[in-house]
Every structure is written in structure tokens, then in C-alpha cells.
Amino acid sequence: MNFNANIIWRRGDGTMPEHVKYIVEAAQNELLLKSLQLPSGIVDMIRYNADKNAQTVNEYISAILVGHLTSAS
Q1: Count of the separate structural domains present in the chain
Q2: Structural domain containing residue 57
Q3: Who wins on pLDDT, 48 or 12?
Q4: Is residue 17 predicted with pLDDT exceeding 90?
Q5: Closest C-alpha among 70, 52, 24 to residue 62
Q6: Residue 52: predicted pLDDT
Q7: Is 65 among the domain residues?
Q8: pTM, rounded to two decimals
Q9: Burial of 60 by CB count in 10 Å (0-12 exposed, 13-18 middle, 19+ buried)?
Q10: Long-range CB pairs of 23-27, under 8 A, 24+ apart, other chains included
């Protein structure tokens, strides 16, 4: 096999370029949603609300959890 890949950023190279950061965040969001195993309607609602609030899916879900945990204590 021939692996000719362009390395556009490595950990420790300084700040992550915006186009790389966007891809990494999108992958993290998808992994989080897949790991929660939610119905597709709920996943769509989370994506919509996160986008509407200018947040990542991770930030949106974290805000919901923090809100529930602070109200429970």
C-alpha cells in the first residue's frame, strides 16, 4: 500500500487551522450523537437547536446536562 497523505496539522504544531478544527469538531459531534443511540428525530432536533444557538452539538448537550445537574442540586 502506498500512503501519500498530506499532513496539514499535528498536535503540538501550534493552534489548529480553522478548516481542520471544523472537521475535528464535526467528527466529535457525530461520534457523540452515535454513542448516545438516540432516535433520529431527537438527533435532528439536537443538531437544529445547536445550530440555531451557534453551538457545537457537544456544547449544546453539555449545556443541557449542566442545567439539569444544577437544578437537581
Answers
A1: 1
A2: 39-73
A3: 48
A4: no
A5: 70
A6: 96
A7: yes
A8: 0.72
A9: buried
A10: 25/56, 25/58
